[in-house]
Design a protein that fits this description.
single chain; 483 residues; alpha/beta; 8-stranded mixed beta sheet; globular
């Protein structure tokens, strides 16, 4: 998807369509938009540039007359000339073959649209899974940074597994969750996403089958697919993944690993019961099926602490435990971790050093001091209180505006409400309509293919007023489609 962050100047004496044509020619002339690139639809361009469709038609006709673009009914409008009138042909290299041959798959168009909209200052983010700025403990972090400045702490490279200070403090924290770990079995990563990337690079091979709950946020990522792996979705209920179905599938497919989010599952918000956790780990032990446990939402509980992690029941070293501070403290710190056997951690640490030479020493210092000083515990208490208010506001708004047209869960923690409409609608149309109204949502088909009745509502980023307004506007859009 082309990145367009410009709009024509309505106060300029130059006509709007000529400004747009000039903008496109400049992008092509500078080599930013390549020959062979397909332009967005006229409808999309009119929305992006904030003009009538007739203005876009005039701009396209201008560009076509100059031989810059070519359109047809089946293939859309394509750049066919890198504007020889503006710069010589040989100055712009055609990178298309390289772009299409890279290992990483391109994000889905809707994911690219979401990523772009996240940074629109006027958008109400009912899809975001990161805390709002108001929830980030800036004062605590500033206190720690000030202490670091006074102490003259070095900011050089840290050892491959991460700073020993942070790993020791993490081991103390993990012990409160029932996980016994030594610093040598902990790897600091740049967020939980990098943990998945390292596992893909270091432990799995092409064509591996990875089991996961269905729905799952992993379907919206390209991490495993980019390395040639297959995702195999297993149904889940209120108590967690269907164990019988998982191992029936495993006997047929012989998958490589299970990826699970047992605590405040993304997107459903479900919590796997203690009984099912024990059965799952026992069965995985018998079948020698390794588990990747994503536990990044654990600290965001409201009434009572969730059950112990899967890793706490693991007696055979089968579980790779992933945690982090992005969801409950600060996304910008990019601090995550993997806990596993020493041999596995050594392998992943070696790959991490090859890819980025270690996580930020500054971020690691902040994280270690938050844990050691008790500020992390203090912050999590305040975080839970403030996020609960947002959850309650979202539930109240759903009762006001979605009663009779949808059902939903009441999450005991985490950031998500899994909204299920009584009748199916076009999720793509709803997404586009909501985006036009400055509401950003995550349609259910991001998490389960062909899901046309679910929406993941997140209450972590929007303010209380924005949550109410956003859900109200969203309900109107749904009702219009249902008519």
């Amino acid at each position: 998807m082309l990145d367009i962050d410009w709009k024509p100047d309505r106060n300029s004496p130059t006509q709007l369509y000529l400004q747009i044509a000039g903008y496109i020619k400049n992008k092509i002339a500078c080599g930013e938009w390549l020959v062979g690139t397909k332009l967005p639809s006229q409808r999309t361009l009119s929305e992006v540039f904030g003009v009538n469709r007739s203005t876009i038609v005039a701009a396209m006709e201008e560009l076509a007359a100059e031989g810059v673009i070519e359109g047809n009914s089946g293939g859309g409008t394509v750049i066919i000339n890198n504007t020889w009138t503006l710069c010589p042909m040989e100055r712009t290299y055609n990178w298309n073959n390289y772009i299409s041959s890279g290992v990483h798959q391109t994000n889905q168009t809707i994911v690219q649209q979401i990523n772009q909209a996240e940074f629109d200052p006027g958008i109400i983010r009912l899809g975001s899974c990161e805390p709002s700025d108001a929830l980030v403990p800036c004062g605590m972090i500033q206190k720690i940074l000030k202490k670091m400045t006074v102490s003259g702490k070095s900011l050089g490279y840290e050892e491959p597994r991460g700073t020993l200070h942070l790993r020791k403090e993490l081991c103390k924290y993990l012990s409160t969750l029932g996980i016994a770990a030594e610093p040598s079995s902990v790897l600091i990563t740049s967020g939980a996403l990098q943990a998945l990337q390292l596992i893909s690079l270091g432990l799995l091979h092409s064509n591996s089958v990875v089991y996961l709950e269905k729905p799952s946020y992993l379907y919206s990522l390209r991490t495993f697919q980019s390395f040639g792996m297959q995702l195999s979705g297993i149904p889940l209920d209120e108590e967690g993944i269907n164990i019988q179905e998982l191992f029936a599938r495993h006997r047929r497919k012989r998958g490589a690993m299970l990826f699970s989010i047992p605590t405040f599952h993304n997107p459903t918000g479900n919590v796997m019961s203690p009984e099912r956790r024990k059965i799952l780990i026992d069965k995985c032990g018998l079948e020698r099926l390794p588990v990747i446990e994503d536990d990044v939402y654990r600290e965001i509980w409201f009434d009572e602490q969730p059950p112990m992690p899967l890793k706490a029941f693991d007696k055979n070293g089968l579980v790779l435990y992933i945690g982090g501070m992005s969801k409950n403290m600060s996304p910008g710190l990019r601090i995550g971790w993997i806990v596993g056997s020493e041999q596995v951690i050594a392998r992943l640490a070696d790959i991490k050093m090859q890819t980025d030479y270690g996580s930020s020493s500054l971020s690691q210092y902040v994280a270690a001091e938050m844990l050691a000083s008790g500020l992390y515990t203090e912050h999590n208490k305040m975080m839970r209180k403030n996020v609960r208010k947002r959850r309650d506001a979202a539930l109240a708004a759903l009762n006001r505006y979605f009663k009779g047209i949808a059902s939903w869960n009441t999450p005991a923690g985490g950031y998500f409400i899994w909204l299920r409409l009584n009748n199916a609608i076009s999720m793509h149309q709803l997404f586009i309509k909501a985006l036009k109204n400055k509401i950003l949502i995550h349609p259910g088909d991001l998490y389960e293919y062909h899901s046309n009745q679910n929406i993941r509502i997140s209450y972590s980023n929007a303010s209380l007023d924005e949550i109410d307004f956003g859900i109200k506007v969203l309900s109107k859009s749904v009702i219009e489609q249902l008519k």
